[in-house]
Amino acid sequence: MPFRYQTLPVTTFHQNCSIVWCDETREAAVIDPGGEIDRLLAFAEAEGLALKQIWLTHAHIDHAGGTGQLARERGLPITGPHEGDRFWIDGLPQQSRMFGFPPAETFEPDRWLVDGDTVTVGRCTLQVRHCPGHTPGHVVFFEPTSRRAFVGDVLFAGSIGRTDFPQGDFDQLIGSITQRLWPMGDDVTFIPGHGDESTFGEERRSNPYVRGT
């Protein structure tokens, strides 16, 4: 199986930034570079990976704060999220001040994503699902051969994403989980934006917010 990944928690929010790559070509993408860019680049160099892209699930500061710098310094294209998060990208400098992060640069994604899109790194193709609720432009990346989903802040082990931020919507979030994530299958292991990995099946059984859905 050529698809591989490593998750590196970054920032004071311990956000799960994932570096994903094709083991055949060693081409890599970084999902949600919220910060600690030097650490992410050091990992890629140590593994002999060629960073080619940045993929974003959504544009909150802990997920997107390092994106502008990384794209500018390394000449990397930015893919995602959905255009519904444009206002969050425009507000990154304000977010950085509000939460005590290093100054964050705004940016214009090279490609906005919509439900049903795909993204490719090396010979690996991941499916895109638009999963609003935590933010209006939130997307999820699903790699079907490894049965792995990178879900950002939609779903956590034992919890779900917050919906009290601007344009958050609880009912919409629950719909995203039940209509966009569950059909992928109970056996799918997901990498959340914070905390430990879990499976969709485990969350359907035990997560108090979506148990039995």
Automatic annotation (TrEMBL):
Record SMART domains: Lactamase_B
Location of region: Disordered: 193-213
GO molecular function: hydrolase activity; metal ion binding
Biased composition (Basic and acidic residues): 194-206
Cofactor(s) it depends on: Zn(2+)
CDD domains: YcbL-like_MBL-fold
InterPro entries listed in its UniProt record: MBL_Glyoxalase_II, Metallo-B-lactamas, RibonucZ/Hydroxyglut_hydro
Name under which the protein is recorded: Uncharacterized protein
Organism, scientific name: Piscinibacter gummiphilus
